[in-house]
Design goal:
This protein is an alpha+beta fold. It is 29% helix and 33% strand.
Amino acid sequence: MQRLISLFFVFIIGCTFLTSTTYAKWAYAFVVYDGNTYIMSNTRVEPKQIGKKIGRVTKYSDQEGIYSGNFSNMFPEGTEYYEIKGVKTNDAIAVKERDELFIKANYSGQYAGSKYNWQHIFLYFSIVILLFGIICTFKIRMK
């Protein structure tokens, strides 16, 4: 029984190494707003075409991965998103690059990311199981 428990823990630890994150560069610049991906264009939006503020970047990374929230691989946290007058947010939004300079971002589809990072959840779950197994092993040995 102890050998089976030990093999199980070796398996769990091995799985945690398999879920480790590897990093690569992104293929293109984009922002995520409200669960949707918008690919950055080279098109400037005139300040008079800018509507109301609709959001901002909450997470930035230049390394490929799965992130949650209003994420960008180009703009730092705090960069603001705006509506473009006469354009649905399902088609495009404007991203404020600096004062009076807005760049158009075209809708590309739903973001593949998630609210939850399943690799982290799996890792935490594995640690709980490992601790539970250690406690059970010590209880068995104490008898």
